[in-house]
Specification:
The complex is a heterodimer of chains A (129) and B (544). With 129 residues, chain A is of the alpha/beta class. In chain A, strands 2-1-3-4-5 form a five-stranded parallel beta sheet, with helices on both faces. In chain A, α2 packs parallel to α3. The radius of gyration of chain A is 13 Å and the shape is globular. Chain B is α/β, with parallel strands linked by helices and 544 residues long. Chain B is 50% helix and 15% strand. The longest helix of chain B is centred in the first third of the chain and has 34 residues. The chains are: A alpha/beta (129), B alpha/beta (544). Chain B: Its EC number is 2.7.7.65.
């Protein structure tokens, strides 16, 4: 199984971006790149080829689910697994994000000390790695 | 795999703390923006458009999704509930009434106030067993007053307590109330006693029609921790509740643990952490003075048997220094011989805890002593007129922030503020008016600066503020706003209205090598502001 190394984090809230960077880079030891909107995510994912994309659901402009759909349309990003990150509103919505192709869903607010571990578990549980 | 390197926990903690400070500043701004939006919508004559509601929703969503990560879980939940409400309004395409929007405003304002009063951001600790101290949930209050509980419930509910009548407390299911309030004027002893006895861990507060000594004594014997007579003064009652459940301190208590047994010390550290108490472990007695200076604990736990230097010897070394006279020193040891304990205490030290000690006993003993120590140092360090921190204490804080920012490579700013032409105010209107102006500025500074900032009264009309995790530019903006507000405040004395201004100088920790130089730099910048014509803010330029 390929180890999880590069994570692209897509999140419009800069505070969250920064705390996730600490959580993933320092605590988790991953390589992290971040951007703050869906459009940038499309080009950055194509260029940088991350192992996994951590994608915020609700963003101004193109939201998370639309970004996922567009990622699946372009060949270079088609196969990159996506984990949604969302402030849980209803359990059914979480089911929905899985149904539309999210590998899993990470609930906000997250604990910076365990976020990396959570992603690693999701990675190892899935068969994409 | 690249994850084999273990991060320095301290590094992570420092970075997270810096981010948290930044975040709490932004949070305060965001809440104010949302309040302004809700207020504006509630007064609109033309009806509310969907776009405005979407903007509100986005703002609430952002807080719901982020506040918890930065240690504000209750705020996160509140924001989520409000978000859901706004979402429902949008989805059902209903028109929110002004009353609904005002209610939303009130709720936002509540959140804002709680943030400003400073519910300490609690780092969420999965499985932590001391919910009360971690601030994870509302304090559960059961009221027994034979049905006549509505007024009190409403009043306390406004402060964020989760209030029920005790008969309905079954609805708390797996979680008993934290506090029981019994109104002995309204309910018979035979009715409340068994109910109270069934929840022995809850704290008891009694309300009574009579306040004589006999009644108070009886309350004490019945186990009451608070006693109030009718008519109930709700703010005092709330104050007592806070005190009893040990809710919001400005900062978590800090405990320095000196023990050569690193595993055991780590174990203690985790137990205390679970109770919301911060601690640092020192395994080498000779590093204790450095630890005291860096960490400034409220209490020191000392292992009695350590190689090279015994606990009582170490305690005496600590007591050599006037600065640490007020800090309780508590021995922790397997020593159960009371005679030898007494001997150890006779040398120095305040108390003895015997290992093995239960988690609860440790937390209780530490909390009680840390609380006293904190109250004492606060009382000693506060200025009587303004309630602000006094000169020596604020200097100490500047030193702490200086070394913290050097350690964590973050930036902090020191601001020196001096009221313009203060002498002429005193001369024209008298000293009473001078004091009034000082208090006015003190209140304004306290109101406008963040919870994490420190404000001190440095001299007569001179103030110092310390702004951690803040860049020079942000500090300038913040102080500039306060300067403008202050200059616009109308002061009234002897039936005359006048305005007062101040001059300020700001220096950043990144430009100076130590606290002394930093403070001097801020002072120089303040004098430049004076010379430049007063009523302005100047930044200190670091030496090349």
């Amino acid at each position: 199984m390929k180890p999880l190394q590069r994570i692209l984090h897509v999140e419009d809230d800069v505070s969250i971006q920064e705390v996730a960077r600490v959580a993933l880079e320092i605590v988790g030891g991953f390589e992290v790149s971040s951007c703050d909107n869906g459009q940038a995510a499309l080009s950055q994912a194509a260029e940088w080829q991350p192992d996994l994309i951590l994608l915020d659901v609700m963003m101004p402009g193109i939201d998370g689910p639309t970004t996922l759909a567009k990622l699946r349309e372009q060949a270079s990003t088609q196969a990159i697994p996506v984990v949604f990150m969302t402030a849980k509103v209803q359990p059914s919505e979480i089911e929905h994000y899985r149904a539309i192709g999210g590998l899993d869903v990470v609930i906000k607010p997250f604990d910076p000390m365990t976020l990396a571990e959570q992603l690693r578990e999701i990675w190892e549980r899935s068969d994409v790695g | 795999m690249s994850d084999s390197k273990t991060p320095a926990a301290a590094d992570v903690a420092a970075r997270l703390a810096a981010l948290r400070e930044q975040y709490s500043r932004r949070l305060s701004d965001d809440l104010q923006t949302l309040m302004a939006q809700a207020r504006e919508l509630s007064t609109r004559q033309t009806g509310v458009d969907v776009e405005s509601m979407q903007t509100l929703r986005q703002g609430l969503h952002r807080i719901a999704g982020s506040a918890g990560t930065f240690g504000y879980p209750a705020l996160s939940r509140d924001a989520r509930e409000m978000e859901l409400w706004v979402q429902t309004v949008i989805e059902e395409a209903t028109q929110p009434t002004p009353a609904m929007l005002t209610a939303l405003f009130d709720r936002l304002e509540d959140c804002y106030r709680q943030l400003e009063v400073g519910a300490t951001p609690a780092v969420s600790e999965p499985g932590g067993s001391y919910d009360l101290a971690s601030g994870e949930r509302a304090i559960r209050v059961a009221i027994m007053a034979d049905g006549d509980t509505e007024t009190l419930m409403q009043a306390l509910g406004g402060f964020g307590y989760d209030c029920r009548t005790l008969s309905a407390a079954d609805a708390w299911a797996d979680s008993a109330p934290d506090v029981i309030i019994v109104d002995t004027a309204k309910i018979a002893e035979s009715a409340w006693k068994p109910a109270v006895a069934s929840v022995p861990q809850a704290t008891l507060i009694m309300l009574s029609a009579s306040g004589d000594f006999e009644t108070r004594l009886k309350a004490v014997r019945d186990g009451a921790r608070g006693f109030f007579t009718h008519p109930i003064d709700v703010p005092s009652l709330e104050h007592r509740l806070r005190y009893l459940v040990n809710l919001p301190q400005q900062d978590p208590y800090r405990v320095l643990i000196v023990d050569d047994d690193v595993d055991l010390a780590e174990h203690f550290r985790l137990i205390l952490k679970g109770a919301g108490i911060e601690s640092r472990v020192i395994d080498e007695p000779r590093h204790v003075l450095q630890g005291l200076r860096d960490f400034v604990p409220d209490l020191v736990l000392i292992d009695i048997n350590m190689p090279g230097c015994s606990g009582p010897e170490l305690a005496r070394i600590i007591r050599f220094d006037d600065d640490w006279l007020r800090i309780p020193l508590v021995y922790l040891s397997a020593e159960s011989d009371t005679h030898r304990q007494a001997q150890a205490l006779a040398q120095a030290g305040d108390d003895f805890l015997v290992k093995p000690i239960s988690d609860i006993a440790l937390v209780t003993a530490v909390t009680a002593r840390a609380q006293r120590s904190r109250q004492l140092s606060l009382a000693l360090a506060r200025d009587g007129l303004t309630g602000l921190i006094k000169h020596p204490a604020i200097k100490e804080l500047i030193e702490i922030e200086m070394s913290r920012s050097q350690r964590s490579h973050s930036e902090a700013c020191v601001v020196m503020i001096d009221i313009d032409r203060f002498k002429s105010i005193n001369d024209t209107y008298g000293h009473g008016t001078g004091d009034y102006v000082i208090r006015l500025l003190a209140n304004l500074l306290r109101q406008r600066l963040r919870r994490v900032d420190h404000v001190g009264r440095y001299g007569g009309e001179e103030f110092v503020a310390v702004l951690p995790g803040c860049s020079l530019e942000n500090a300038r903006e913040a102080i500039e706003r306060i300067r403008v507000s202050f200059s616009q405040l109308e002061c009234v004395a002897a039936e005359q209205t006048f305005n007062v201004t101040f001059s300020a100088g700001i220096a950043s920790t990144t430009g100076w090598a130590d606290a002394e130089l930093l403070l001097e730099a801020a002072d120089r910048a303040m004098y430049e502001a004076k010379q430049g014509g007063r009523n302005q803010v100047r930044l200190a330029k670091p030496e090349a």
